[in-house]
Amino acid sequence: MPVCMKEVVKEATKFVSACYGKHDTEEMTITRQTLWAARVGKSGKAMPLLASLPPTTEAFYENVKRAHIQACICKHS
């Protein structure tokens, strides 16, 4: 059953955002910004490692496309 890439990205975004504790986020960039703000906060804590934050929306989209094509190849081989 063919699925629109938009739906794949939407569902993947929901899943990965939930893994970071943000259940109502539509874009990964918003999840990233929210986590950044929570970790740094008003107290001026040290900057968190960028690797500990989720990817930006653009980077996440590319990762989802790559993973989706790999899953399709495995499914049909």
Question: What would you report as the Rg, rounded to the nearest angstrom?
Answer: 15 Å
Helix content: 55-70%
Q: Which spans have pLDDT < 50 for at least 5 consecutive residues?
A: none
Give the structural class. mainly alpha
For the secondary structure, the number of strands is: 0
**SSE sequence, one letter per element:** HHH
Distance between the termini: 16 Å
Proportion of beta-strand residues: under 5%
Give the biggest sheet.
Answer: none
Q: How many structural domains in the coordinates?
A: 1
What integer is the average pLDDT? 87
Contiguous helical run count: 3
Query: Outline, from the CA principal axes?
Result: elongated
Keywords:
single chain; 77 residues; mainly alpha; 62% helix; 0% strand
Per-chain topology:
Blueprint: H1 5-19, H2 28-40, H3 57-76
Give a verbal description of the structure.
The protein is mostly helical and 77 residues long. The chain has one domain. The chain is built from three helices and no strands. It is elongated, with a radius of gyration of 15 Å. The relative contact order is 0.14.
In short:
The chain is 62% helix and 0% strand. With 77 residues, the protein is mainly α.
